[in-house]
Design goal:
- The chain is α/β, with parallel strands linked by helices.
- It contains three helices and five strands.
- The chain has one domain: Glutaredoxin (3-Layer(aba) Sandwich), CATH 3.40.30.10.
- Strands 1-3-2-4-5 form a five-stranded mixed β-sheet.
Length: about 100
């Protein structure tokens, strides 16, 4: 992730590569068609810069990444440490 706190990826290969670079990464899995996602994206981008956290924004309109990580609701936050899922926060239907 090369010093950037907030990086967008849109495919599984780029996501897996980015997870190898940092010890701790927060991944926001979203879809461009999701109105809740569009509302939270700017908030998370600002937070990543402010807190100097590694945040990956994963646009998953084809749902391939969602299938691999069992994401049923957009947006979903997943915390990775050393490439492994340690915590997640799934969105709620109709709420985001």
């Amino acid at each position: 992730m090369g010093g950037e706190s907030c990086v967008s990826v849109d495919n599984l290969q780029d996501l897996e590569q980015a997870l190898l670079v940092a010890d701790r990464v927060i991944v926001l899995v979203h879809a461009t068609w999701c109105p809740f996602c569009r509302k939270v994206l700017p908030v998370f981008e600002k937070l990543a810069r402010k807190e100097n956290q590694h945040l990956l924004l994963v646009a998953d309109d084809e749902e391939r990444i969602a299938d691999v990580y069992d994401v049923d609701i957009f947006p979903t936050l997943i915390l990775f440490e050393k490439g492994r899922v340690v915590k997640r926060l799934d969105g709620k239907p109709g709420v985001g």
